[in-house]
Design a protein that fits this description.
Adenosyl-L-methionine (AdoMet)-dependent tRNA (uracil-O(2)-)-methyltransferase. It contains 10 helices and 6 strands. By secondary structure, it is an alpha+beta fold. The chain folds into 2 domains: about 90 residues, no CATH class; about 120 residues, no CATH class. The strands form 2 sheets. Strands 1-3-2 form a 3-stranded antiparallel sheet, with helices on one face. The chain has a 3-stranded antiparallel sheet with strand order 4-6-5.
Length: about 300
């Protein structure tokens, strides 16, 4: 709708309409197929020759639509824009009625079909013409989206939380016997205990939790970002035991193995510096540097 020369590509995923979640209207199709037909319908209403393609990506939702050419000449642009406006308003009316009354609708599958409550008339104030606001209540994202995945938090703050949580897990484990410590048995390396995210949060101060709450995923995201130290499984936090990690040659393709090799020992080993038993791996096997002299 932005211009006559506009082309588009869309990969439908989540089931949403213009004003909320998409409501199913047919039981003979799968929800995915029905939604794909709706997205294609939007393209037809907007005056595009809609082409469908299936992407070669590892996803169950890989059907895409491409609109490269129009079904009408440039001289009819204003007329088509009015039709688009009516289509949007009709769907908005249906969304309100469905939410408020839970009634059925007469619906056509064709590109000229509109969703209307039987016998209802659209309020005159909802009629928009070309040149006015498309959807006055629509709020787009900011041009510069704020990064809120804990990556922009100060390093000192992150390191402090990591150390506190790690010590919490390590201290929850029963102390090793003197014989184990003297024998230097690597199996006696303190792996700590696992705690739920809720239990971990209860041991952090309010100021820390408040700061994490403003980030997407909060505490869980911060711990997952620190993959070297923690493993978060089914809502429980564990100290990562690198002895159990499979070699990259077994789990990664050639390109990723090359990238891993380039990143080998480019960061200091957290366990070598902070863990009371040191690192569970010898220096030559650990992907992280055991001291500054070991850095690449």
């Amino acid at each position: 709708r932005s211009s006559y020369s506009c082309c588009y590509f869309v990969l439908p995923c989540c089931f949403f309409d213009f004003h909320g979640k998409y409501s199913r209207r047919q039981s003979k199709k799968t929800q995915y197929r029905e939604y794909l037909d709706f997205v294609a319908q939007v393209g037809f209403v907007c005056g595009f020759h809609v082409e469908e393609d299936c992407l070669r990506i590892p996803s169950t939702k890989r059907v895409s639509f491409i609109g490269k050419t129009r079904t009408y000449p440039p001289t009819e642009y204003a007329l088509i824009d009015k039709q688009i406006t009516q289509f949007i308003n009709d769907r908005r009316t249906c969304a309100v009625v469905m939410c408020g009354r839970g009634v059925g609708f007469n619906h056509k599958d064709h590109c000229d079909g509109v969703c209307r409550e039987a016998g209802s008339e659209r309020p005159e104030q909802e009629t928009e013409t070309a040149g006015t606001a498309w959807m006055p209540e629509f709020q787009p994202r900011e041009k510069v989206e704020q990064i809120r995945n804990c990556a922009s938090l100060p390093r000192e703050f992150v390191d402090d939380v990591v150390l506190k949580v790690a010590n919490l897990l390590l201290n929850a484990s029963p102390p090793k016997s003197c014989s184990d410590m003297q024998s230097g048995d690597r199996n006696a390396w303190n792996r700590g205990e696992s705690l739920s995210l809720k239990e971990v949060a209860e041991h952090l101060n309010k100021e820390t939790l408040k700061r994490l709450k403003s980030e997407y995923g909060g505490l869980q995201t911060l711990l997952k970002n620190n993959h070297q130290v923690f493993e978060v499984l089914n809502g429980r936090v564990h100290i990562r035991d690198w002895r159990k990690e499979k070699p990259s040659s077994e789990t990664k393709p050639e390109v990723k193995r090359r990238l891993s090799a380039e990143a080998f020992k480019t960061r200091l080993c957290w366990f070598f510096i902070h863990h009371p038993d040191g690192c569970s791996l010898p220096s030559e096997s650990c992907p992280y540097a055991h001291g500054t002299e070991d850095l690449r």
